[in-house]
Amino acid sequence: MSTPGLDRVVPETVTATKPGPFSQLDLTAFPDGDTAVYPGQGPCRLGRVVKKLVDGRVILFYHLTLLGNKGGELFVPVDKAGNLGIRPLMKRSEIPQVMSHLKRRAKPAETWKQRNADNLRLLYSGSPYDLAEVVASLSHLRYTKALSLSEARTLDKARKLLVLEISEASGITEVTTEEQVDYALNSE
User: Which in 37, 124, 146, 167 has the greatest CB count within 10 A?
Assistant: First the structure.
């Protein structure tokens, strides 16, 4: 829903406050309909940049539509997108490397508290490699001991996010992607 009297505008360049790959967000690199990844939410279809009136100030927002069964919409302030870790969808050429991360057997932390902190940090980092590490670590741990409710939820969320991104990047169905993830997890 747009605010009356405010036009939809796309500025040429917006500078984010955090240095890194998104310190200069060239909005032409993210045209309408392109796909980006919001950490912890997964792949999103980018809509127009919209102006909204917030607390008496006009603020520009990316309009994102969540992909997958979740659906839903997000409005992310343009000047915060880099700080939030919003990034382009992984390239198809990266998929084999991500799948090889699933085959790794990293030793998880001994205590539940440390494992949980490590996994949440990785889950919300925004990296598909970190998602693969969480999935591999917790999947392997699940076969050696029962996961806590929190760990089971983290595994489920990381797996869904990883499957969604690989599916979007490869253009194959989520069901086929899940089978490929299972195959990678079960191979040594």
Answer: 37
Give residue-wise pLDDT tens across range 106-159: 777 778 888 889 999 999 988 999 999 999 999 998 888 888 899 999 999 999
- The residue range of the domain holding 126 is 92-186
Instruction: Evaluate whether residue 4 is within a structural domain.
Output: no
Is residue 168 within a helix (H) or strand (E), and if so which, with residue range? helix 149-170
10-24, 48-62, 84-98: the lowest-pLDDT one: 10-24
Using CA atoms in the order 76, 80, 82, 86, what is the torsion angle rounded to 10 degrees?
-20
The Cα 29–Cα 149 span in angstroms is 40
Order of strands, edge to edge, in the sheet holding 35-38?
73-77, 57-66, 42-54, 35-38, 87-88
Look at strands 13-15 and 42-54 and give their pairing. Answer: unpaired
Using the 3D structure, point to which of 59, 88, 117 is the last residue of a domain.
88
Residues 105 and 81 in one domain: no
The whole-model pTM stands at: 0.79
Domain shared by 33 and 104, yes or no: no
Residues in the chain: 188
